[in-house]
């Protein structure tokens, strides 16, 4: 059994697609260190959650962000903060002025079991566009991948190409070898 530290049930459902039903959700508010490195943030959270929840079963924590090429990868690890303070529309307004609107979502899944600390990353490339679509959350309305924004995709379409899914697939492969 793996404990996935998140308050987001959608993330847990996606994890179960890759890890079968061996995933249990833990809603624990770990300290999020300030870093430009998603792996450092996720691994710190996994270690802290492992210790604080009794250290009996492995822990998985993920961290993700939107990285915009034209502005040096901003907002990156600070994506949630930027969304909360500026909002998706203002991020689009920033990107709209740029000739290069390429971006990517990146996710790092961190695993910790008291002895082993491993990270697995996944990314999905795209382009920032004017907001479209009614689905998804966060930056999904302004992130286009192969002609559709993530907000225009069904959950199944989005999960099939997601950055988190790509990281979880690598993690599942590693776990199967253990």
From TrEMBL:
NCBIfam families noted in UniProt: PRK14821.1 (NF011396), RdgB/HAM1 family non-canonical purine NTP pyrophosphatase (TIGR00042)
Oligomeric and partner information: Homodimer.
Record protein name field: dITP/XTP pyrophosphatase
Keywords (A to Z) from UniProt: Hydrolase, Magnesium, Metal-binding, Nucleotide metabolism, Nucleotide-binding
Gene Ontology BP annotations: nucleotide metabolic process; purine nucleoside triphosphate catabolic process
Family listed: Belongs to the HAM1 NTPase family.
Source organism: Haladaptatus paucihalophilus DX253
InterPro entries on file: dITP/XTP_pyrophosphatase, ITPase-like_fam, RdgB/HAM1
Cofactor requirement: Mg(2+)
Binding-site residues for Mg(2+), renumbered to this chain: 32, 63
A Pfam short name: Ham1p_like
Record's keyword annotation contains Methyltransferase: no
Function: Pyrophosphatase that catalyzes the hydrolysis of nucleoside triphosphates to their monophosphate derivatives, with a high preference for the non-canonical purine nucleotides XTP (xanthosine triphosphate), dITP (deoxyinosine triphosphate) and ITP. Seems to function as a house-cleaning enzyme that removes non-canonical purine nucleotides from the nucleotide pool, thus preventing their incorporation into DNA/RNA and avoiding chromosomal lesions.
GO terms under cellular component: cytoplasm
Catalysed conversion reaction: ITP + H2O = IMP + diphosphate + H(+); dITP + H2O = dIMP + diphosphate + H(+); XTP + H2O = XMP + diphosphate + H(+)
Class of this enzyme: hydrolase
Keyword Metal-binding recorded: yes
UniProt binding sites for substrate: 6-11, 64, 137-140, 158, 163-164
UniProt EC number: 3.6.1.66
MF term (GO), any: ribonucleoside triphosphate phosphatase activity
